[in-house]
Amino acid sequence: MSLDVSPPDPPALEPAFDPDEYEDADVMGEDYRREELDEYLHDGAWERAFGEWAEHTDLGETEWAIVEDLHLVREFDFFWDDFADRVGYHAPGLPEDWRERDLHPKLDSWARVSGINAALTELGGVVSDVLKAEYIEWESEFEAPDDLPDF
């Protein structure tokens, strides 16, 4: 299956970043390289990754319209994770209380909500992979301590 829609604008990564916002912030380095990643996203990485993702996603046009209506794309976040030598990301998602909050008239089942959340996570992964493989030229600066035990 594929999704035949135009790529939305990439999310804007804010240079001011509170690392305490994410659970895994304690293992990430201090240089998140957000400005560089934002530049790469706007220079074609987002469009390239979105196209690759759209060719293989199970998300339908109705679900994509919900994503657009709720402006979920702008909630993506990408950052350099020096510890893991990767582009980390946090994908937006629909909350568990979507029904109580009456978020969107076409949100009518857990299957649809789960499908949207899974597809957005997959999109984040594709964007992360494209950034790492095709745009990032720097090396990880993290060095493991010398006193790690042998396993």
From TrEMBL:
Protein name per Swiss-Prot or TrEMBL: DUF7992 domain-containing protein
Pfam family membership, one: DUF7992
Annotated segments matching region Disordered: 1-24
Domain DUF7992, chain residue ranges per copy: 3-151
Lineage of producing organism: Archaea, Methanobacteriati, Methanobacteriota, Stenosarchaea group, Halobacteria
